Amino acid sequence: MSIQAEIQAATGGFAIQAEFDAPQGSCTAIVGPNGAGKTTLIHALAGLIPLQKGRIVLAGQLVDDATQGVHVPSNRRPIALHSQHNLLFPHLSVVDNVAFGPQCSGLSTRLARQRAEEWLHKVGLADMAELRPAQLSGGQAQRVGLARAAACQPDVLLLDESLASLDAETRTDVRHLLADIPATRVLITHDPVEARVLADQLLVMERGEIVQTGTPEEVTADPRTPWTAGLLDINLLTGQAIGTHVALDCGLALTTATPMTGPVLVTFSPAAVTLSTAEPHTSARNTWQAEVARIQPESDRVRVLLGAPAPCHVWVTPQAANELGLSAGTRCWAALKATELTVREA
């Protein structure tokens, strides 16, 4: 394993507890709501926050052990850290900023500059090598910072929302670049596409703890919290099952195709729900009346957020939204087939 981490740490009165392993060359994506502890976890790996309990091994090197009193400083860890705050040196040119890391690792000025030029070419900024950071856009500075981190050729590359300020086209290019970096990568992201495309495993953090771990496919198939379901664009409701009858905690009752007993999680795709202005007479076993809470146009579709009794979101085409006259406050009917519901133990 390239990363073996058992972490209990605190900063500013906020505590986290996390445990995970990551194989050499893999990518681990950390996702979770704001304030979940994602950056605190990254900073603990980087050595910026000491452990209260636990231990961290990076690329075979013990860098933290709270019991033995081991704490290796950040500059002696086999890592590079890139955050959304690039912290470029304003007095250095772009190429010298990128060369700084390799030089600190012992590379000669000539070889460090050569490596920096190679990375600037990879991130599409070769023609800006002699500019100063103040002459760059936010997205360009982000790419320079990423090139500087990667140019160090670390065993472990820590990325704190490194793609956040990039435009859509550049973000796609940089994703491909990150996928080809041989380091073991740990990535904080709020982008479900990034998580699915880059990650070998997902860590879902909420309230300072890892609440779910798995491959993107495993987490998508079985989200365990409403936040996780929302990130992956899946509706999740909780309730009590008796056979194929589920009494949801929100007050609605659903019929499913899978008999269960006890507390359950019920998930379904936003595309599985059909909306109408009149009570439907279809084969769908589940129908209910709801009020539209919000409408969100999204390129070629419209996301309709429904309120009580079963808060969820639904996808419709722009044409369907117009024909149904949907807007905030509109009353409509929702229909959902039992076979579209996935039911698992809570």
Précis, in short:
This protein is an alpha+beta fold and 346 residues long.
Tell me what the structure shows.
The protein is built from nine helices and 19 strands. With 346 residues, the chain is an alpha+beta fold. The chain has helices at residues 38-46, 94-104, 109-122, 138-151, 168-180, 192-198, 216-221, 226-231, 318-324, and strands spanning 3-11, 14-22, 27-31, 53-58, 61-65, 70-71, 79-83, 156-160, 184-188, 201-206, 209-214, 235-248, 253-268, 274-276, 286-298, 301-306, 312-316, 331-336, 342-345. β16 and β17 (312-316) form a beta hairpin.
Annotation keywords:
346 residues; alpha+beta; six-stranded mixed sheet; 25% helix; five-stranded antiparallel sheet; 38% strand
How many helical elements? 9
Oligomer: single chain
What is the makeup of the main sheet? Answer: 6 strands, mixed
Kindly, what is the distance between the CA atoms of the first and last residues, rounded to a whole number of angstroms?
31 Å
Shape category? globular
How would you summarize the topology of this molecule?
Elements: E1 3-11, E2 14-22, E3 27-31, H1 38-46, E4 53-58, E5 61-65, E6 70-71, E7 79-83, H2 94-104, H3 109-122, H4 138-151, E8 156-160, H5 168-180, E9 184-188, H6 192-198, E10 201-206, E11 209-214, H7 216-221, H8 226-231, E12 235-248, E13 253-268, E14 274-276, E15 286-298, E16 301-306, E17 312-316, H9 318-324, E18 331-336, E19 342-345
Parallel strand pairs: 3-9, 3-10, 7-8, 8-9
Antiparallel strand pairs: 1-2, 1-4, 4-5, 5-6, 10-11, 12-13, 13-19, 14-18, 15-16, 15-18, 16-17
